[in-house]
What we know:
By secondary structure, chain A is mainly α. Chain A has helices spanning 28-46, 51-55, 57-70, 77-109, 124-136, 139-150, 154-179, 183-189, 195-229, 237-246, 250-278. Chain C has a six-stranded mixed sheet with strand order 5-6-7-3-8-9, sandwiched between helices.
Amino acid sequence: MAxxxxxxxxxxxxxxxxxxxxxxxxCAVCWFVLGLAALTAASFWTLDxxxxxxxxxxxxxxxxxxxxxxxxxxxxxxxxxxLAIASLETLAMSALGTLIAAAAGLALALPASRSHPGDPAYxxxxxxxxLNGLRSIPELVWAALLIISAGLGPFAGTLALALHTTGVxxxxxxxxxxxxxxxxxxxxRARGVPAGRVFLYATLPQILPQLLSYTxxxxxxxxxxxxxxxxxxxxxxxxxxxxxxxxxxMNETSSxxxxxxxxxxMVDFASYLSRRLLQR
Amino acid sequence: MDTAVSVLPQHRDPAxxxxxxxxxxxLVLLAPALVVTExxxxxxxxxxxxxxxxxxxGDFFPPKIEGEFLLLVAREAWRTVAIAxxxxxxxxxxxxxxxxxxxxxxxxxxxxxxxxxxPFVLRQGVxxxLIVLRSIPELVWALVFVRVxxxxxxxxxxxxxxxxxxxxxxxxxxxxxSDETHATRTLLRxxxxxxxxxxxxxxxxxxxxxxxxxxxRWECAIRSSAVLGFVGAGGLGQQMDxxxxxxQGSEVATMLIVFMLLVALADYASGWLRKRxx
Amino acid sequence: xxxxxxxxxxxxxxxxxxxxxxxxxxxxxIAPGEQLAxxxxxGAGKTTxxxxxxxxxxxxxGRIELDGTDPxxxxxAQLQKLRGRLFLAPQxxxxxxxxxxxxxxxxxxxxxxxxxxxxxxxxxxxxxxxAESALARFxxxxxxxxxxxxxxxGERQRVGLAxxxxxxxxxxxxxxxxxxxxxxRAAQAIDTLTRCATxxxxxxxxxxxxxxxxxxxxxxIGLRDGELQFDLPxxxxxxxxxxxxxxxxxxxxxxxxxxxxxEDASGGAQAxxxxx
Lengths: 280, 278, 276
């Protein structure tokens, strides 16, 4: 028995320890597991899930037909032309949305950060509140809201991406500003250089690679979001997808899905390459 | 520049031309992007749009707090959480077997250096299946299932189950393979079965990371189940979509606040849990 | 610039109010154009003294006067203007790793530049010739267009010193300028620094670990535990005085001094968790 406590007075016989009780009121893990099981059970219980309908012969046949048609993508030239334009639109939406968000995020990151210990940072809490608000509403909800002002189409989608991403990037950028090595900024501040120029000459050059890398990661994320924003009317591939799927054009749907996956892979690769270049 | 005439060659910025080139290239790329996305911010401020925006936004305040409506919102918020939780439970059912099939850390034939052909093909096949599941957005799955089983939470649960199954399977595989596999390999060499080696070697050392990632995914699932409602998969999103279509600003405002609180709560709970696990 | 310290005490900004000040009441006068070295074992309060002189640290007690005015009695705008006439070179060269040497050196001109001029200089450096000649004084003319992180530690430190030449400041405060230079480079760098300070008519206060280099300065100040031990012309700094000053820190007297503080590792951009 390797685990026997050596300091205990040795009994004549070998002492055997009972394993700990399986349930203990103070055991956090037990409560966690119990809570999880309860939550899961309650979830299945309260949702009127239509398994019968899903597993019915009719539904399965429908699914089978869908999947069967998905294997033969539509390839007529006119459709592919429209698909290319929609893909371009999606790409432009994601890139422009990310770009605007990076600029706006940087602008908001400055008031949202405490750049040095003596900085009163009056605007830190309110700006962070705004950033959190922007971030907690998903792109798709933003798009649905913006359609009222910006109308159907890619403009609403771009703005939606930009708003949500501003919240995400603003917070990350603010964190980067606060974690930047303080030496260079201190040397300039000691000479009475105003805060904006201290940022441009000392802080920004240090964190720029990190900011770019965050932005690129976010672009990878946004191309995925942009692809489906059209479902609520935000333009791009999603709009086409919603249209063709609504009419059960599964061949066209299949081509659109392939285009989405290719686009995502392309952006991932471009972003990966750029990040590799940045590390030099 | 100041003394442009007498600039010595070593005083010219060698990076200037490349910078200028990249700046122009960026402009050239940006212009079509602006055109394609119909980027016309000024349309936001045209009197016509401004009026409808104002009417909608003006209706936001005060948010609707009628008892009956609040009850409805609370029920839909719970359904959002329930869809996420049920979806995650099914996603785990999808992910765990696929992870076990795909991870090469518990391959017996790989012990001798190279995996045999059949297990190799099987593992690659499973990996491809995971990639396909994961690369189709959950919103698309939801659109498909809404067509098959009709409007309602079933479509949302299935969509989350499939996409998140793929994501979990992939990340679980990465976590398992990135960890130290010495203990597992020793067990396999000593004649343990694959599942035995998994439970006694691989799982104990990766469990915290696996749990932490799962909790984080659950948080993501809550956000995404709210969004899925917009295509008719039930929950808060579906109510929000309905209210938006009827320009009920006050209802939208209430639901947005509830949604933000829900996300903040999930964020907090998941953060707390992950800190406890770590 | 004439400097008068009367019973000046200073405390580290991070230190709590009740702790003993890093610099105990100190009275000192430095004449315009004077050059002096501050020596003493580590923890003697040398850096705190420099920060107090640079108006980066508000005195805990006592009074500082620069050219007869108390900087802490000035309105903020004028204090900032005054700070522009001071130049503080910290021990770790304050150079962003990915900035180019030319920009890093020209940053010394920021206090004199308008916002527009400083923005423009980011796109195309202005005053390139001045930057190059300043670098040339420290044998670094060829590094003008290099990135700072491509330089060695010693080269970075000399770039930090070359900044002083462009600062048009009338008080140079240099903290441990030689910590990553080899002895021959160190002597050369300190000669350049003192000569340039004379040419610019600047007052020079340098903290040093290398006692032998310190004797090249006309006036040497010994600090220990935040207290003034001696303030003498360098020829009167005897072995015995040094031995007392460095008692229990003899290894610093013989060796090269403590290693420079570790540079902040700017953590590689870590991918945050994303839902997609």
